[in-house]
Please model this.
Amino acid sequence: MPSRKPREAPPTTPDGRYLVVDGRLWRRSNPALGPRQRQLLVDALMQARREVGVALRAGNAAAERRARERVHRAKVALGERGPPWWTDGAPDFNRHLVGGTPYAAWFAALGQLRDKP
Model:
């Protein structure tokens, strides 16, 4: 069986606010969360995601809605959704294509560095 190549971690913007996945910005968790609090929220998020899958497989729309609401609440608590966790007034580019944001030049330069032999 061929071995899998480990996945490279997605790049993080220089200010630490976003990850870039498939050219789209995704807000990172609030770095002010303590490790224990963060882990509890991640555990709640993963459990809720599992419950979404169970509900989908069972065709239970009401259970799916409840599970998706728990996913949303966990993501808001983590700082990945809802009001931005930073306080400098900078706009939130969560879910935006990186090319249409102030991070475009940084991301283009990053790609050029990766393409060099």
Notes: Residues 81 and 104 are 22 Å apart (CA to CA). The chain is about 45% helix and 5% strand. Residues 34-79 form one domain.
